[in-house]
Specification:
With about 350 residues, the chain is α/β, with parallel strands linked by helices. The protein has eleven helices and ten strands. The strands form two sheets. A five-stranded mixed β-sheet has the order 3-2-1-4-5, sandwiched between helices. Strands 8-7-6-9-10 form a five-stranded mixed β-sheet. A hairpin with a 2-residue loop joins strand 7 and strand 8. It is globular, with a radius of gyration of 20 Å. The two termini are about 20 Å apart. The protein binds 5'-O-[(R)-(carboxyoxy)(hydroxy)phosphoryl]adenosine (KG4) and zinc ion (ZN). The site of 5'-O-[(R)-(carboxyoxy)(hydroxy)phosphoryl]adenosine (KG4) has 19 residues, from helix 5 and helix 6.
Amino acid sequence: MLVLGIETSCDETGIALYHTERGLLGHALYSQTEMHSEYGGVVPELASRDHIRRVLPLIRQTLAAAKLELQDVGAIAYTQGPGLAGALLVGASVAAAMGFALKIPVLGIHHLEGHLLSPLLSTPAPVFPFVALLVSGGHTQLMEVSGVGRYRLLGETVDDAAGEAFDKTAKLLGLGYPGGPALSELAEEFSRSCKPKQFKLPRPMLHSGDLNFSFSGLKTAVLTLTNKHGITQQTRGGIALAFQEAMVEVLTEKSLAALTQTGLTQLVVAGGVGANRQLRTSLSRRAAEMGSVVFYPELEFCTDNGAMIAFAGAMRLQQAGIRDQPAGSFTVRARWDLELLETP
Ligand code: KG4
Ligand code: ZN
């Protein structure tokens, strides 16, 4: 069966076609980053309006590129939540209308379930059960993933998400939005310059004895540093590196502790911060020391995308007992606890 996936939870319109036997047949993404960068963050109303503009042309473009017709689609999966309510409504209403017209099942997917299952789109793919470190702009969680719909929260951030901390710190340093990639580049550049390290920042909750995170204090520590030393050509790189090192150490050590606690040996990293090179190097090195393996989905599947939604939809449709929603009706859930998901 061919599943059309629609992702519109935040500032990316993602469309994909996943075939239950033939795999991923096509996907396309339109990122609104440039539009929001002017405001230093996502403007929800602008995001919704842009999804409206992009979603149908992107569906047409994805179908055409895969040489498929609308009539070939056997089911539609869309992101039902969590996310920006208005943005979610665009994907949900398009999915419901198309499903009604084509008389095919429509399924609302949890955005984080999409992220958790996305590593299975890559080769080599992990096998259940595994530990997932979900590090995005909105979420920082360690989950035990035992199968489709079988997720156990091991720990999460008590305040800012990892990506949010990267973005806020980048803003403090006068870098653009979203600042994560720019901050990480600056840190790497400083590292390559072989200049002596000037600063060291705290490792919040490193020894808390649980698998929770806290990043808002780190941002405040950066603010204190910038107030004291100023933001100059000399200090900026050093601060960026100190920040990144603190983030990477905490994320690495907590992920390893999650592997030890669960007795599992596979770690999957999903979400935009998973693109961070220093994090990848650190996780792989430390995991190898304890005989574990780390899986990184390709970057395009790490960040928000339609493929993970089409794939999660396909997995769920194959499970017995999962109901699609009544024709023509839809709801979105701006807030939605992953652990409340229906287990097949
Ligand atoms: O998963 P994602 O694309 O979107 C959601 O938040 O759902 O994650 C985006 C986040 C942003 O906060 C961005 O700054 C961060 O991922 N990010 C990075 C890097 N690339 C993206 N953070 C640190 N280092 C990077 N290389
Ligand atoms: Zn996401």
